[in-house]
Structure formats: C-alpha cells, structure tokens
Amino acid sequence: MKACSAVVALVAAALAAIGYRGQLLWCGARGIPLGTFWRRPGFSADQMPPMDGLVALVTGANSGLGLEVSRQLLRANATVVLACRDVAKCEAAAQTLRAEAAALAVMARPDVRVVHVDLSDLRQVGRAAQTLDAELGALDLLVANAGVAAQFPLTLTPDGVEQTFQSNFLGHFALVTRLLPLLERSSQRRGAPSRVVPLTFASNHLCLDGERPATPTRIRSSLLKVTCRLTSILHTRRCISPRARTVARHPAASAAACRSP
Q: Residues 62, 4: one domain?
C-alpha cells in the first residue's frame, strides 16, 4: 500500500513539474501554458522605479495593453505620449488617465499627451515622427504595442502594402527609425540607453480554439499574425543603436480590442 502511494506521489510530482514548465498542459482556447498560472510572478507594477523626467511613447494606447502600460508609466511619474490612430478615442483615454492620476494624487499635473499616428500610412507616420521630434525634446521609452487582427480578404494600405503586415510591423519599423535620433539624444543626455519595447505573442505555438473549426481563413490569419510578430522579433534582435536598447516582450493572454469580433 505504501509502495503504491509512493508511486502515485512520484507520478503526481512529475506531472506537476512538467505542467509548471508549461510544456505539457496547454490551453487550446487561448494558447496559454497552464503552468503560467502556477508560477510566482517575478515582477509587479509596484516594483517600477520612479520615472520622473522620463518621456515614454506608447502606440495603440487608447485601450487594452497600451492603456494599461500608459497607466503604469504615468503612476511612475513619466510623461506619457499616447499614439493612436483614432484621435477621439485617444483623447478620451488621456482624460481617463489624468482623472485617475489626480484621484491617486500621483502627481500635481499628470503630463499625458496625444499624438495621431496611423501605422497603415507611412507618410502620416513620417509627419507624426517629425512633429514628435520637434515638440518632445526627449524620448526615453517607445512601446510598440499597436496592432490589428489579420485582415481578410487581404487589403492594401495607401502605400501598396498588405494591411496587417504594415500595421503590425512596417509602420512601427518606420516610426522607430524616424525617432531613433531623438532616442539617441535622450540617451546621451541621461547617460543611459533609451529603450524600444515591441510587444509580441506566442507565435511559436499556433494554437487554435478547439471549439471552432480550423478553417483555411483562421489558419491564414494565424500565419499572417505570426509572420508580422516574428519579423518584429528579428528586428529587435538586431541592435539598432548602442544608445537605444531593444527588448521584445510577450504580455501573455489579454482581452485586446483587436481580438474582439
């Protein structure tokens, strides 16, 4: 009886260890390793250092991950620039953040700014970058968060590029490239590297919802998003500048607006 209990305990321990690493137990509905939920968090927003005097730009900041990232940066006393395609929604998000910061007495005058950036239009991206370079004077952090779900049927942007690829990668590539001189000047002023943080997703796991059929359109959608995000990671792995450090981050599962029907 004791031997049987020992074997059961050993098997349970082995399964728990494998599940903890997230390689065996996998959530087909969202592509999340269940081991993620069992791991102790290594970092929380409460551990963020003060960011007084730093300027951060977040794309797609009017909702979802972009809004939450902007909220935490503002609570750390950073100047936050919300870069969005829809200016009205961006202004509404900025008002919400200002009200929250004032209620928490985080800072006397929360510095939240709004800029129009449409990643699907490279000419507009260039104009926006030129405006930011002239008006900000410094840029210490750029969070490349904005993105769209795969577009079917395939559509082209005004630049003649497939919509999903340009919005999720090429637009950010153009924005970062145009703002690189500003990032470098900020780094030289502070004596520390500026940062570019592209958000990614678990593209190495093409996990489809088991409750819905894996139609050709859904498979093409997953492959298209994977291509965009893998290209972003490859861009990240190339050191764009000694004064601008790039760090790709996977934010785990989220109810982002681009996933809404």
A: no
Q: Taken in order 111, 116, 120, 123, is the CA torsion positive or negative?
A: negative
Domain for residue 190, yes or no? yes
Give the amino acid at 103: A
Residue 209 or 76, more confident: 76
Phi (first) and psi of residue 159, to 5 degrees: -90, 0
**One domain, residues 5 and 121:** no
Summarised one tens digit per residue, pLDDT across range 9-51 is 777 766 665 554 444 444 444 444 444 555 555 667 777 888 8
pTM greater than 0.85: no
Residue 189 identity? R
Please check whether residues 6 and 110 belong to one and the same domain.
no
Cα–Cα distance between 45 and 43 in angstroms, integer? 7
C-alpha span between 26 and 29 (Å, rounded): 9
Burial class (CB in 10 A: 0-12, 13-18, 19+), 183: buried
Q: For residue 180, what are its two tokens?
A: 């690189």
- Residue span of the structural domain in which 216 resides: 50-259
Integer angstrom CA distances of residue 225 from 19, 206, 208: 27, 10, 13
Residue 85 · residue 117 · CB < 8 Å: yes
Contact 114, 94 (CB under 8 A): yes
Question: Same domain, yes or no, for 247 and 174?
Answer: yes
Query: Taking residues 210-232, what's their average pLDDT?
Result: 49
